[in-house]
Design goal:
Bound molecules: BIS(adenosine)-5'-pentaphosphate
Strand order of the largest sheet: 2-3-1-4-8
Oligomer: single chain
Helix content: 40-55%
Length: about 210
């Protein structure tokens, strides 16, 4: 199995494609955002610290995320391979992977135009009970789904989206050069139908 990093702006489809690879190839997805949201929901000490940063669309401080992710990657189910979805997101996080001798084979960098990102994020809804992700523009929930059961992530509101896109440019984009210089970066066109994007990612993984 392969060890991958999924890099890309908010709404690029990192989570969507990870989920498809989990179903199709049995890969292990480690989503920094999902682990942090779980901590917030459970009101753990980490969750209490992370909540305000996340709601504003800012990054959670490096050391908190590094400790969380390194511990998760060291679990036995990750021995053969994993997808790091949304981690690393800063140079300090990328350096921490190296320091902890966590190697990756490839870094898939999703390329999506900003207007498409904003449309996807503004349309994303999560089912309150099942946790399934839908999109009011592209991926409608099954007929009969109650509107009240579909919730919007607090950080998908316009102000937070604006901030997340800014933070991506200042803090995360430098990782493109970082991994390019290491020869691990593969750019993938993230626009178009998600099945088509999945095909491109599978090709990039070869
Ligand atoms: P996180 O949850 O990781 O948010 P993100 O990176 O902003 O990623 P998203 O989930 O918004 O986008 P995605 O690329 O996964 O797109 P998705 O597939 O969901 O992080 C949230 C917060 O946690 C951060 O802001 C930060 O505070 C904190 N955090 C997380 N990691 C951190 C780190 N390493 N360091 C510090 N803090 C950290 O798709 C989005 C929508 O588009 C969906 O509705 C989907 O259905 C739709 N869609 C996807 N692909 C397509 C397609 N091809 N066509 C049409 N629609 C599509």
């Amino acid at each position: 199995m392969t060890k991958l990093i999924f890099l890309g702006p908010p709404g690029a489809g990192k989570g969507t494609i990870s989920q498809r690879l989990v179903k199709r190839q049995g890969m292990v997805q480690i989503s920094a955002g999902d682990l942090l949201r779980e901590a917030v929901k459970k009101q753990t000490p980490l969750g209490m610290k992370a909540k305000a940063y996340m709601e504003k669309g800012e990054l959670v401080p490096d050391q908190l995320v590094i400790d969380l992710m390194v511990e998760r990657i060291r679990q036995p189910d990750c021995k053969q391979g994993f997808i790091l979805d949304g981690f690393p997101r800063t140079l300090a996080q990328a350096e921490a992977l190296k320091k902890n001798r966590i190697e990756v084979d490839k870094v898939v960098n999703f390329l999506v135009a900003e207007d498409i990102l904003i449309r996807r994020l503004s349309g994303r809804r999560m089912h309150r009970i099942t946790g399934e992700i839908f999109n009011i523009h592209t991926l409608l929930p099954p007929p009969g789904t109650k509107e009240a059961d579909l919730i919007q992530r607090p950080d998908d509101k316009p102000e937070a989206v604006k901030k997340r896109l800014e933070v991506y440019k200042t803090d995360t984009m430098p990782l493109i050069d970082f991994y390019n210089q290491e020869g691990r970066l593969v750019n993938v066109d993230g626009e178009g139908d998600s099945e088509v994007v999945l095909g491109r990612v599978l090709k990039a993984m070869q």
